[in-house]
Design a protein that fits this description.
nine-stranded mixed β-sheet, about 400 residues, alpha+beta, 21 strands, about 25% strand, single chain, about 30% helix
Length: about 400
Protein backbone atom coordinates (compact mmCIF):
# COMPACT_ATOMS: atom_id res chain seq x y z
CA UNK A 1 0.00 0.00 0.00
CA UNK A 2 1.38 3.41 -0.97
CA UNK A 3 2.00 5.86 1.86
CA UNK A 4 0.71 8.66 -0.34
CA UNK A 5 -2.17 8.35 -2.78
CA UNK A 6 -3.71 11.07 -4.88
CA UNK A 7 -7.44 11.57 -5.09
CA UNK A 8 -8.57 13.06 -8.38
CA UNK A 9 -9.28 16.75 -8.08
CA UNK A 10 -8.11 16.87 -4.47
CA UNK A 11 -4.85 17.41 -2.60
CA UNK A 12 -2.70 14.36 -1.90
CA UNK A 13 -3.69 12.42 1.21
CA UNK A 14 -1.04 10.94 3.47
CA UNK A 15 -1.92 7.32 4.21
CA UNK A 16 -0.73 4.45 6.39
CA UNK A 17 -2.15 1.14 7.53
CA UNK A 18 -1.42 1.90 11.18
CA UNK A 19 -0.76 5.22 12.89
CA UNK A 20 0.84 5.50 16.32
CA UNK A 21 0.48 8.55 18.55
CA UNK A 22 3.43 8.85 20.94
CA UNK A 23 7.13 8.12 20.58
CA UNK A 24 7.85 6.70 24.03
CA UNK A 25 8.42 3.01 24.67
CA UNK A 26 4.70 2.13 24.48
CA UNK A 27 4.32 3.80 21.09
CA UNK A 28 7.56 2.36 19.76
CA UNK A 29 6.53 -1.14 20.86
CA UNK A 30 3.20 -0.91 19.05
CA UNK A 31 4.89 0.49 15.96
CA UNK A 32 7.22 -2.52 15.96
CA UNK A 33 4.39 -5.02 16.38
CA UNK A 34 2.40 -3.43 13.54
CA UNK A 35 5.46 -3.30 11.29
CA UNK A 36 6.22 -6.97 11.98
CA UNK A 37 2.65 -7.74 10.93
CA UNK A 38 3.47 -6.14 7.58
CA UNK A 39 1.69 -2.83 8.09
CA UNK A 40 2.86 0.47 6.67
CA UNK A 41 3.33 2.43 9.90
CA UNK A 42 3.57 6.13 10.71
CA UNK A 43 4.39 7.35 14.22
CA UNK A 44 3.78 10.88 15.48
CA UNK A 45 5.71 12.34 18.42
CA UNK A 46 4.99 15.92 19.41
CA UNK A 47 8.49 16.58 20.76
CA UNK A 48 11.64 16.66 18.66
CA UNK A 49 12.75 13.52 20.51
CA UNK A 50 11.40 11.48 23.41
CA UNK A 51 11.84 13.34 26.71
CA UNK A 52 9.28 11.72 29.01
CA UNK A 53 9.19 8.72 31.31
CA UNK A 54 10.78 6.45 28.70
CA UNK A 55 14.16 8.13 29.15
CA UNK A 56 13.80 9.06 32.84
CA UNK A 57 14.03 5.57 34.27
CA UNK A 58 16.48 2.91 35.45
CA UNK A 59 16.68 1.01 32.18
CA UNK A 60 15.66 -2.11 34.07
CA UNK A 61 13.85 -4.84 32.16
CA UNK A 62 12.59 -6.16 35.47
CA UNK A 63 10.53 -9.31 34.89
CA UNK A 64 11.05 -10.62 38.42
CA UNK A 65 9.05 -7.78 39.96
CA UNK A 66 5.95 -8.35 37.85
CA UNK A 67 2.83 -10.04 39.13
CA UNK A 68 3.06 -13.80 38.66
CA UNK A 69 1.24 -15.16 35.67
CA UNK A 70 0.43 -13.02 32.63
CA UNK A 71 2.53 -10.02 33.68
CA UNK A 72 5.63 -12.09 34.37
CA UNK A 73 5.25 -13.85 31.03
CA UNK A 74 4.75 -10.50 29.30
CA UNK A 75 7.96 -9.24 30.85
CA UNK A 76 9.89 -12.24 29.56
CA UNK A 77 8.50 -11.73 26.04
CA UNK A 78 9.54 -8.08 26.19
CA UNK A 79 13.00 -9.14 27.31
CA UNK A 80 13.28 -11.34 24.21
CA UNK A 81 12.44 -8.37 21.97
CA UNK A 82 15.06 -6.20 23.67
CA UNK A 83 17.60 -8.96 23.08
CA UNK A 84 16.56 -9.27 19.44
CA UNK A 85 17.02 -5.54 18.88
CA UNK A 86 20.35 -5.62 20.71
CA UNK A 87 21.62 -8.46 18.54
CA UNK A 88 20.62 -6.67 15.34
CA UNK A 89 21.78 -3.16 16.23
CA UNK A 90 24.50 -3.48 18.87
CA UNK A 91 22.29 -1.71 21.41
CA UNK A 92 23.78 -2.11 24.90
CA UNK A 93 21.56 -4.56 26.79
CA UNK A 94 23.49 -6.21 29.59
CA UNK A 95 22.04 -9.55 30.81
CA UNK A 96 23.13 -8.64 34.32
CA UNK A 97 20.32 -10.22 36.31
CA UNK A 98 19.29 -8.90 39.71
CA UNK A 99 20.02 -9.39 43.39
CA UNK A 100 17.47 -8.72 46.12
CA UNK A 101 19.74 -8.27 49.14
CA UNK A 102 18.40 -9.26 52.57
CA UNK A 103 19.97 -7.74 55.67
CA UNK A 104 17.05 -8.64 57.98
CA UNK A 105 15.33 -11.91 58.81
CA UNK A 106 11.91 -10.65 57.69
CA UNK A 107 13.38 -9.83 54.25
CA UNK A 108 14.80 -13.34 54.01
CA UNK A 109 11.37 -14.73 54.91
CA UNK A 110 9.62 -12.85 52.10
CA UNK A 111 12.22 -13.86 49.53
CA UNK A 112 12.16 -17.50 50.57
CA UNK A 113 8.37 -17.56 50.42
CA UNK A 114 8.39 -15.91 46.99
CA UNK A 115 10.79 -18.49 45.59
CA UNK A 116 8.80 -21.29 47.17
CA UNK A 117 5.42 -20.25 45.71
CA UNK A 118 6.59 -18.97 42.31
CA UNK A 119 7.38 -21.94 40.11
CA UNK A 120 7.80 -19.95 36.85
CA UNK A 121 10.51 -17.82 38.43
CA UNK A 122 12.24 -20.92 39.79
CA UNK A 123 12.05 -22.50 36.34
CA UNK A 124 13.87 -19.46 34.95
CA UNK A 125 16.66 -19.70 37.50
CA UNK A 126 15.47 -17.52 40.36
CA UNK A 127 16.77 -18.91 43.65
CA UNK A 128 18.00 -18.04 47.09
CA UNK A 129 21.76 -17.76 47.53
CA UNK A 130 23.96 -17.34 50.58
CA UNK A 131 25.52 -14.06 51.64
CA UNK A 132 28.91 -15.33 50.48
CA UNK A 133 27.51 -16.17 47.05
CA UNK A 134 25.88 -12.75 46.80
CA UNK A 135 29.18 -11.03 47.62
CA UNK A 136 30.88 -13.08 44.90
CA UNK A 137 28.34 -11.79 42.40
CA UNK A 138 28.39 -8.17 43.60
CA UNK A 139 31.34 -6.16 44.88
CA UNK A 140 28.85 -3.41 45.70
CA UNK A 141 26.72 -5.28 48.23
CA UNK A 142 27.20 -4.30 51.87
CA UNK A 143 28.72 -7.29 53.63
CA UNK A 144 27.95 -6.24 57.20
CA UNK A 145 24.71 -7.91 58.27
CA UNK A 146 24.00 -9.54 54.92
CA UNK A 147 22.03 -12.72 55.59
CA UNK A 148 21.12 -13.96 52.11
CA UNK A 149 19.93 -12.78 48.70
CA UNK A 150 17.61 -13.75 45.91
CA UNK A 151 19.32 -14.13 42.54
CA UNK A 152 17.29 -13.76 39.35
CA UNK A 153 19.03 -14.12 35.96
CA UNK A 154 16.16 -12.76 33.85
CA UNK A 155 16.74 -9.01 34.24
CA UNK A 156 18.29 -6.94 31.46
CA UNK A 157 19.94 -3.55 31.91
CA UNK A 158 19.58 -1.00 29.08
CA UNK A 159 20.48 2.67 28.99
CA UNK A 160 17.15 4.45 28.40
CA UNK A 161 18.62 7.65 26.99
CA UNK A 162 20.36 5.59 24.31
CA UNK A 163 17.87 2.76 24.02
CA UNK A 164 14.78 4.80 23.11
CA UNK A 165 16.40 6.65 20.17
CA UNK A 166 18.06 3.39 19.11
CA UNK A 167 14.71 1.60 18.96
CA UNK A 168 13.27 4.46 16.90
CA UNK A 169 16.20 4.29 14.48
CA UNK A 170 15.78 0.52 14.24
CA UNK A 171 12.12 0.91 13.29
CA UNK A 172 13.09 3.25 10.48
CA UNK A 173 16.01 1.25 9.11
CA UNK A 174 14.65 -2.28 9.55
CA UNK A 175 10.93 -1.77 8.84
CA UNK A 176 10.62 1.58 7.08
CA UNK A 177 8.45 3.08 9.82
CA UNK A 178 7.78 6.75 9.09
CA UNK A 179 8.53 8.59 12.34
CA UNK A 180 7.38 12.20 12.47
CA UNK A 181 9.06 13.94 15.38
CA UNK A 182 7.88 17.44 16.26
CA UNK A 183 4.38 16.61 15.01
CA UNK A 184 1.29 16.91 17.20
CA UNK A 185 -1.91 14.97 16.56
CA UNK A 186 -4.65 17.51 17.21
CA UNK A 187 -7.65 15.27 16.72
CA UNK A 188 -8.87 11.96 15.34
CA UNK A 189 -12.04 11.35 13.32
CA UNK A 190 -11.50 7.96 11.75
CA UNK A 191 -10.00 7.34 9.34
CA UNK A 192 -8.49 10.83 9.52
CA UNK A 193 -5.88 12.15 11.92
CA UNK A 194 -5.47 15.91 12.00
CA UNK A 195 -1.81 16.75 12.67
CA UNK A 196 0.41 19.80 12.59
CA UNK A 197 2.00 18.23 9.49
CA UNK A 198 -1.32 17.86 7.65
CA UNK A 199 -4.05 15.27 7.60
CA UNK A 200 -3.34 11.54 7.54
CA UNK A 201 -5.57 8.56 7.01
CA UNK A 202 -5.09 5.17 8.65
CA UNK A 203 -7.05 1.97 9.11
CA UNK A 204 -5.88 1.56 12.70
CA UNK A 205 -4.68 4.09 15.27
CA UNK A 206 -2.99 3.40 18.59
CA UNK A 207 -2.98 6.33 21.00
CA UNK A 208 0.07 5.82 23.26
CA UNK A 209 0.26 9.35 24.61
CA UNK A 210 1.75 8.60 28.02
CA UNK A 211 1.63 11.50 30.42
CA UNK A 212 -0.44 13.62 28.02
CA UNK A 213 -3.86 12.09 28.57
CA UNK A 214 -5.92 15.28 28.21
CA UNK A 215 -5.44 16.02 24.50
CA UNK A 216 -6.99 12.98 22.78
CA UNK A 217 -10.07 11.18 24.15
CA UNK A 218 -9.91 12.89 27.56
CA UNK A 219 -13.25 11.31 28.52
CA UNK A 220 -11.68 7.83 28.31
CA UNK A 221 -8.97 8.81 30.77
CA UNK A 222 -11.38 10.65 33.07
CA UNK A 223 -13.54 7.53 33.33
CA UNK A 224 -10.49 5.33 34.04
CA UNK A 225 -9.44 7.25 37.15
CA UNK A 226 -5.88 7.48 35.84
CA UNK A 227 -3.51 9.80 37.74
CA UNK A 228 0.13 10.79 37.47
CA UNK A 229 3.01 9.44 39.49
CA UNK A 230 5.85 11.80 40.33
CA UNK A 231 9.24 10.28 41.10
CA UNK A 232 12.71 11.53 41.97
CA UNK A 233 15.87 9.95 40.63
CA UNK A 234 19.61 10.58 40.61
CA UNK A 235 22.69 9.55 38.68
CA UNK A 236 26.39 9.43 39.55
CA UNK A 237 29.27 10.24 37.26
CA UNK A 238 31.16 7.56 35.37
CA UNK A 239 32.60 5.09 37.83
CA UNK A 240 36.43 4.88 37.87
CA UNK A 241 38.57 2.35 36.04
CA UNK A 242 35.83 0.80 33.96
CA UNK A 243 34.15 -0.55 37.11
CA UNK A 244 30.96 -2.51 36.42
CA UNK A 245 27.99 -2.92 38.74
CA UNK A 246 27.14 -6.44 37.68
CA UNK A 247 23.66 -7.49 38.89
CA UNK A 248 21.19 -4.68 39.44
CA UNK A 249 20.52 -4.30 43.16
CA UNK A 250 17.69 -3.61 45.56
CA UNK A 251 16.91 -4.00 49.26
CA UNK A 252 13.98 -4.82 51.50
CA UNK A 253 11.82 -1.78 50.69
CA UNK A 254 11.48 -3.05 47.13
CA UNK A 255 9.64 -6.11 48.42
CA UNK A 256 6.83 -3.74 49.46
CA UNK A 257 6.66 -2.05 46.06
CA UNK A 258 6.37 -4.74 43.41
CA UNK A 259 3.25 -6.82 42.79
CA UNK A 260 5.31 -10.00 42.53
CA UNK A 261 5.42 -10.12 46.33
CA UNK A 262 1.77 -9.24 47.02
CA UNK A 263 0.78 -12.82 47.80
CA UNK A 264 3.57 -13.40 50.30
CA UNK A 265 1.98 -13.60 53.75
CA UNK A 266 5.36 -12.92 55.36
CA UNK A 267 5.30 -9.45 53.85
CA UNK A 268 2.96 -8.25 56.62
CA UNK A 269 5.70 -8.42 59.25
CA UNK A 270 8.13 -6.69 56.91
CA UNK A 271 5.68 -3.87 56.23
CA UNK A 272 5.13 -3.37 59.96
CA UNK A 273 8.86 -3.08 60.64
CA UNK A 274 9.47 -0.81 57.68
CA UNK A 275 6.62 1.44 58.76
CA UNK A 276 8.20 1.83 62.19
CA UNK A 277 11.82 2.09 61.03
CA UNK A 278 11.32 4.10 57.85
CA UNK A 279 8.10 6.13 58.20
CA UNK A 280 9.32 8.91 55.88
CA UNK A 281 10.27 6.41 53.18
CA UNK A 282 6.89 4.69 53.39
CA UNK A 283 4.98 8.00 53.35
CA UNK A 284 6.81 9.06 50.19
CA UNK A 285 6.69 5.74 48.39
CA UNK A 286 10.45 5.31 48.50
CA UNK A 287 12.11 2.08 47.56
CA UNK A 288 15.64 1.95 46.20
CA UNK A 289 17.04 0.38 43.05
CA UNK A 290 20.51 0.60 41.56
CA UNK A 291 21.36 0.15 37.87
CA UNK A 292 24.10 1.24 35.47
CA UNK A 293 24.25 3.07 32.14
CA UNK A 294 26.19 2.09 29.05
CA UNK A 295 29.01 4.50 29.92
CA UNK A 296 29.33 3.40 33.55
CA UNK A 297 27.15 5.85 35.46
CA UNK A 298 24.90 4.59 38.24
CA UNK A 299 21.18 5.36 38.39
CA UNK A 300 19.56 5.58 41.83
CA UNK A 301 15.97 6.05 42.97
CA UNK A 302 13.14 6.47 43.54
CA UNK A 303 10.07 7.94 45.24
CA UNK A 304 6.38 7.81 44.31
CA UNK A 305 3.63 10.42 44.77
CA UNK A 306 0.24 10.07 43.08
CA UNK A 307 -2.27 12.73 41.99
CA UNK A 308 -3.72 14.09 38.78
CA UNK A 309 -1.69 17.27 39.21
CA UNK A 310 1.68 17.27 40.99
CA UNK A 311 4.13 20.06 41.61
CA UNK A 312 7.35 19.99 39.53
CA UNK A 313 9.71 20.62 42.44
CA UNK A 314 12.33 18.29 43.80
CA UNK A 315 12.66 17.54 47.52
CA UNK A 316 16.21 17.22 48.77
CA UNK A 317 14.86 15.47 51.86
CA UNK A 318 13.57 12.70 49.61
CA UNK A 319 16.91 12.50 47.78
CA UNK A 320 18.75 12.17 51.10
CA UNK A 321 16.36 9.46 52.25
CA UNK A 322 16.96 7.50 49.03
CA UNK A 323 20.74 7.76 49.39
CA UNK A 324 20.64 6.90 53.09
CA UNK A 325 18.71 3.73 52.39
CA UNK A 326 20.97 2.84 49.46
CA UNK A 327 23.86 2.94 51.92
CA UNK A 328 22.29 0.15 53.96
CA UNK A 329 22.79 -2.40 51.16
CA UNK A 330 25.26 -0.94 48.61
CA UNK A 331 28.60 0.89 48.61
CA UNK A 332 29.59 2.79 45.47
CA UNK A 333 33.19 3.35 44.31
CA UNK A 334 32.42 6.99 43.41
CA UNK A 335 29.10 8.11 44.93
CA UNK A 336 29.10 11.77 43.81
CA UNK A 337 25.74 12.67 42.28
CA UNK A 338 26.00 14.54 38.98
CA UNK A 339 22.33 14.57 37.89
CA UNK A 340 18.98 14.78 39.63
CA UNK A 341 15.57 14.81 37.97
CA UNK A 342 11.84 14.51 38.43
CA UNK A 343 9.82 12.15 36.28
CA UNK A 344 6.10 11.69 35.69
CA UNK A 345 4.16 8.72 34.36
CA UNK A 346 0.47 7.75 34.23
CA UNK A 347 -0.72 5.27 36.83
CA UNK A 348 -3.90 3.32 37.46
CA UNK A 349 -4.60 3.04 41.18
CA UNK A 350 -7.32 0.38 41.04
CA UNK A 351 -4.98 -2.57 40.54
CA UNK A 352 -5.29 -2.59 36.73
CA UNK A 353 -2.11 -3.42 34.85
CA UNK A 354 -2.85 -1.26 31.82
CA UNK A 355 -5.55 0.88 30.21
CA UNK A 356 -6.70 -0.45 26.82
CA UNK A 357 -9.87 1.15 25.43
CA UNK A 358 -11.53 1.54 22.02
CA UNK A 359 -13.17 4.99 21.98
CA UNK A 360 -14.20 4.63 18.33
CA UNK A 361 -13.84 1.87 15.72
CA UNK A 362 -10.24 1.54 14.58
CA UNK A 363 -8.78 3.47 17.54
CA UNK A 364 -7.13 1.81 20.53
CA UNK A 365 -5.95 3.81 23.54
CA UNK A 366 -3.02 2.14 25.32
CA UNK A 367 -1.77 3.73 28.52
CA UNK A 368 -1.39 3.25 32.25
CA UNK A 369 1.39 0.65 32.30
CA UNK A 370 2.79 2.57 35.24
CA UNK A 371 6.46 2.33 36.04
CA UNK A 372 6.91 -0.89 34.05
CA UNK A 373 6.84 0.46 30.51
CA UNK A 374 10.35 -0.65 29.65
CA UNK A 375 9.62 -4.12 31.05
CA UNK A 376 6.16 -4.76 29.61
CA UNK A 377 5.52 -2.68 26.48
CA UNK A 378 6.90 -5.01 23.81
CA UNK A 379 4.97 -7.95 25.25
CA UNK A 380 1.75 -5.94 25.56
CA UNK A 381 2.04 -4.78 21.95
CA UNK A 382 2.42 -8.38 20.79
CA UNK A 383 -0.86 -9.22 22.51
CA UNK A 384 -2.73 -6.30 20.96
CA UNK A 385 -1.16 -6.62 17.50
CA UNK A 386 -0.37 -10.30 16.96
CA UNK A 387 1.70 -11.27 13.95
CA UNK A 388 -0.38 -12.58 11.07
Amino acid sequence: MSVKSAVAGKAAVNRADTAIVGGGIVGLAHALAAAKRGDKVVLFERDDYAVGASIRNFGMIWSVGQQRGAMYDRGLRSRAVWQEISEKTGLWAAPSGSLHLAHHADEVAVLEEFVDITEPARANGTRMITAAEALERSSTAVENGLLAAMWSPTELNVDPRRAIPAVAAYLVSEYGVDIRFGTTVRGIDMPTLSTTAGDWQADNVFVCSGNDFETLYPEVFAASGIVRCKLQMMRTGVQPGGWELGPMLCGGLTLLHYAAFDDCSSRTALAERMGEQYPFHRENGIHVLLSQTADGRLTIGDSHAYAKTLDPFESEEINRAVLDYLGTFARLPEPEITERWVGFYPSLRDGSTELVETPEPGVTVVNGVGGAGMTLSFGLAQELIPSS
